[in-house]
């Protein structure tokens, strides 16, 4: 029985040493995984790179740990001049756009007249519109045609070719 007690005590003592060893191994593994995660996070951190193009240059400010704390962009002087010029033109264009309503107000009456005329034209058939146009053109030339007819009748009368003539009208 004494031997059984010694065997059981040795077994308990062995289990204690084995448990502590397993605990230390687990702790070491956890520490190694934590350090690996920290290194991976550090490597994955954004590290800005200055960029220079024909439009300008970027400038990043970082703290002592390399973390970005600010960013600027310096526009090329030629493009800065373009930007200023466009801003000046935009100001003038906005002023002109604001004045446009007053400038085009006199045209609204004429535009309404044209719309009214178009509405009247659409209300007629094409034949009616053509007939109306031809009558208008004939009315325009009627006075000169009447003068021509009167001159022709006078000429015929003076030469005795319109009806009865008594004697010669010319030598």
What does the model show?
The protein is mainly alpha-helical and 171 residues long. The chain folds into 4 domains: 1-44; 46-75, no CATH class; 77-123, no CATH class; 125-158. 72% of the residues lie in helices and 10% in strands. It contains 3 helices and 3 strands; from the N terminus they run H-E-E-E-H-H. A 3-stranded antiparallel beta sheet has the order 1-2-3. A hairpin with a 5-residue loop joins strand 2 and strand 3 (68-75). The longest helix has 47 residues, at 77-123. It starts with a helix and ends in a 13-residue tail after the last helix. The mean pLDDT is 81.
Brief overview:
A hairpin with a 5-residue loop joins strand 2 and strand 3. It is built from three helices and three strands.
Distance between the termini: 185 Å
Percent helix range:
over 70%
Backbone shape? rod-shaped
- Strand content range: 5-15%
Overall number of domains: 4
Order of helices and strands: HEEEHH
What is the CA-based Rg, rounded? Answer: 54 Å
Low-confidence stretches: none
Mean pLDDT: 81
Structural class by sheet pairing and helices: mainly alpha
- How many β strands by DSSP? 3
Q: Within the largest sheet, what's the order of strands?
A: 1-2-3
Strand count, sense and closure of the main sheet?
A: 3 strands, antiparallel
């Amino acid at each position: 029985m004494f031997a059984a007690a010694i065997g059981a005590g040795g077994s308990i003592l062995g289990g204690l040493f084995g448990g502590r060893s397993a605990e230390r191994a687990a702790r070491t593994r956890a520490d190694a995984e934590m350090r690996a995660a920290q290194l991976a996070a550090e490597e994955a951190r954004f590290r800005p790179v200055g960029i220079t193009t024909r439009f300008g240059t970027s400038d990043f400010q970082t703290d002592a740990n390399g973390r970005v704390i600010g960013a600027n962009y310096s526009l090329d002087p030629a493009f800065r001049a373009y930007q200023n010029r466009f801003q000046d033109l935009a100001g003038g264009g906005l002023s002109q756009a604001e004045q446009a309503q007053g400038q085009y107000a006199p045209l609204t009456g004429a535009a309404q007249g044209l719309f009214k005329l178009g509405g009247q034209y659409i209300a007629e058939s094409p034949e009616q519109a053509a007939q109306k146009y031809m009558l208008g053109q004939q009315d325009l030339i009627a006075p000169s045609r009447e003068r021509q007819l009167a001159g022709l009748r006078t000429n015929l009368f003076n030469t005795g070719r319109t009806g009865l003539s008594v004697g010669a009208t010319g030598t």
